[in-house]
Structure formats: structure tokens, C-alpha cells
Amino acid sequence: MTTTHVIRPDSRDLLVPGKGTVHNREAQVVREGGRDIVRLDARPEHGLAWWHDVPFESGTIAFQVRGKNEPQRSFLGVAFHGVHGGEERDDLSFGDDLTYEAVYFRPFNFLSEDPMRRRHMVQYVFPSERHWQPLREERPGQFEASVHPIPNPDDWFSARVVVSDDTVSVFVGAGDTPSLVVTRLCARRDGWLGFYVGNGSDGAFADLTLTPARGS
What we know:
This protein is mostly beta strands. The protein is built from two helices and 14 strands. A hairpin with a 3-residue loop joins strand 10 and strand 11 (167-172). It has a single domain (11-212), classed as Exo-inulinase, domain 1 (Jelly Rolls). 5% of the residues lie in helices and 40% in strands. The longest helix is centred in the middle third of the chain and has 7 residues, at 132-138.
């Protein structure tokens, strides 16, 4: 019988120089409900909290996340295959040469009565090349979608991001049917892993686990 190897990164390592980096946010790790919660505050532009040395090439990223039902103030998810300046580095300087892929949710769209907004609940991006706006304009409906089941936008919900060599699939809750399947816009297979929040957004994260794909 094959044993599934699950990696559980230590949230507190995000705050330890050399093990983690927080970019454009203040991060706290607090105990809540018997578990460690990572909280990122709200600031202009995107924010990231990275683990530097968590091995992840392909497989499943599972996590819990809590946003809020406030328009344009709740963009949050995970980033992976992060790299700075073409090479992984342990310094704390970040510029426009920071590249990564990300999957994030828009909880404020979860209960919207607007059919268009309901199509924009979850998003895949490769920000250094294609962020949400050019993707929406040039390839509408390919990199964002509704989610099923629809969570409470002000409460915790679980998500799984399954990364393969060519695709990213996003699942919400315990469902077996992906809410979003996209063709990846980046060929990288390694790099930093972390939590992502968008412009003006805060967020809370917990229980991140990684299940590497066989052979990765």
C-alpha cells in the first residue's frame, strides 16, 4: 500500500528571516480555535507571505481561508512557484521581477445577484505576464469562474488547488468537481509557496497542507 506523503508547513516560519518573507503586509500568527491562524492586514497593492524552503513542484495545496463580503476589499488565496530575479534568493528585497502563479477568491461575489459578478468568484493569474484584467479582456471566461458549492463569504471555507505540469484545478469544500480548470501560463516547476491577498485586502489563513504528486 502506498502511503500519501502530506507536508504541513509551520505557519510561524513565515515570520522567521531566512525561512519566510512577508511582502507589503504585516503578518501575525495567532492561536484561534486550537490552531495557528495567519492574518495579513489590508494595504494598497498585493501582499504575500512566503515560505522559502517548502518543497512543492506539483500536487495538491489544501487550505482554509476567511475573507469578507465587502466589494473590492477581499481578494485572497495562495501563490506558488515564486521566484525573484530568475533565481530563488533569501534577501528581503522585492521588485517587479518577482514572479509567481496565484489562485485567489473574491468572496464578495459569492452571493451577488449580478450574473457577471457570479462568474468572477475564483481567478488564476500569472501576474508578471498576465493579471486578471488582460486575461478577462483577451481570453474571457478561461481563467475565472463561479465556485461550487458557494461558501459563506464572511466565514471560513476550505479550498484545494491541484497543480500539474500543464494545468491548475480549483476545488471548494469537499466537492470532487473542480470549479475552475485552467492551462498554466508558466512552465516553472519549483519556487516559493505562500498566501496571497490582493489590492486593499486583508485575510486569514489556516491549515495549509501539501500533497505532492507521485514522482514530484
